[in-house]
Write a structure and sequence with these properties.
Blueprint (H helix, E strand, L loop, with lengths): L4 H8 L3 H8 L7 H14 L5 H8 L4 E7 L8 H16 L3 E7 L4 H12 L5 E5 L6 H9 L3 E4 L10 E4 L1 H14 L5 E5 L5 H16 L9 E3 L4 H12 L7 E4 L2 H13 L9 E6 L12 E4 L2 H16 L8 E4 L2 E3 L7
């Protein structure tokens, strides 16, 4: 028979309530008593009931992540790396991670958030792929529900987040392309409501201006953050009477689609057409040729977000509630002439 808390309390000559509160970490139990309870409970082989513990503390010990995508499975390696970081740090924090997906800005997404928040399925939420005017931020803030985010918005609401300065990264990438002799530099974008699109496109415009290159809207093609989107956009750009000699994909998947289009068109990537992306996913090392990219520390950021969320749910102050990081420019053969 498993050891019960009643037996531990009897062994220590303490009340069941004191033993329970000591194991749950309540501050009204002295540190000396807490350590004694923990030691005896361990020696006796007592394992607290997690369900009972959660009920007493009115917590689930679970954090949630709703992937903002309509793509099946893990079609975007960004999400795979992000979830790996969330999962590893959740485990380190003795938390569970609840994951689902929902198509962004659709009714189904709102239904999932409402079900999780109103049903207290989780103690806190992690957001990613933020939008410039993000209903999720409005909803969670108004609900008083703990959340952290990978990315920023244009909403005048302060919330804990980690941002990556995509604009500065794209400016450095354009400077590199200009050094390689490129003047006709195109950009394959993301959906316009995303903050990452606004940030990286601003960097594109600023980078061109710094290089003395006149912005040409014909060199802008809309994508959707997927390989297929990049492929179709590249076909359109390369059909121009005076096509670009360099194309920047708003993310790595877009750039990988551009590589495929160039290959089908018989264009030599590197010497005839430079191609670059953003994210630094592992696949970029193994494309043909290897892809120049702006690497953001997705895995490490995910782990840090979980630590921030754990502190929030424990009512602990955050030393750095808002963090801004800078991507690393990794130059590979796809942009070397």
């Amino acid at each position: 028979m498993p050891i019960t808390i009643r037996e531990v309390a009897k062994q220590l000559n303490l009340s069941i309530t004191t033993v329970s509160r000591a194991l749950d970490g309540y501050s009204d139990v002295s540190e000396e008593t807490r350590q004694r309870v923990i030691k005896v409970a361990k020696e006796m082989g007592y394992t607290p009931s997690r369900n009972a513990r959660q009920l007493r503390r009115q917590r689930t010990d679970t954090i949630g992540y709703i992937m903002p995508t309509s793509q099946p499975r893990f079609a975007d390696p960004f999400f795979s790396e992000f979830i790996a970081g969330l999962g590893d740090e959740a485990s380190a924090q003795n938390l569970d991670l609840l994951i689902t997906r929902a198509p962004p800005n659709q009714e189904g997404e709102q239904v999932v958030y409402q079900r999780w928040i109103q049903g207290r399925r989780v103690d806190g939420i992690v957001l990613s792929r933020l939008r410039q005017d993000d209903w999720r931020v409005h909803y969670l803030h108004e609900s008083g529900f703990p959340f952290v985010a990978f990315g920023r918005t244009n909403i005048p609401i302060e919330f804990p987040h980690i941002g990556v300065d995509g604009a500065s990264g794209i400016r450095r990438l354009i400077a590199h392309l200009v050094e390689q002799g490129h003047q006709r530099i195109a950009f394959v974008s993301a959906p316009s409501d995303l903050t990452l699109q606004a940030d990286r496109f601003r960097g594109y415009r600023e980078g061109l201006a710094e290089a003395g290159i006149i912005f040409d809207e014909r060199f802008i093609a809309e994508g959707n953050l997927t390989r297929d989107g990049g492929y179709l956009a590249a076909k359109k750009l390369m059909a121009l009477p005076s096509p670009p000699t360099a194309i920047i994909g708003v993310n790595d998947l877009t750039a990988i689609g551009i590589l495929r289009a160039a290959r089908e068109l018989g264009i030599s990537v590197g010497s005839d057409l430079a191609v670059a992306g953003f994210d630094g996913i592992d696949d970029t090392e193994h494309t043909a040729p290897p892809l120049t990219t702006l690497k953001q520390p997705v895995y490490d950021c995910a782990r840090r977000l979980v630590r921030m969320l754990a502190a929030l749910t424990n009512n602990e102050p955050l030393q750095e509630p808002q963090v801004l990081l800078f991507p690393e420019l990794i130059i590979r053969d796809s942009t070397i002439r």
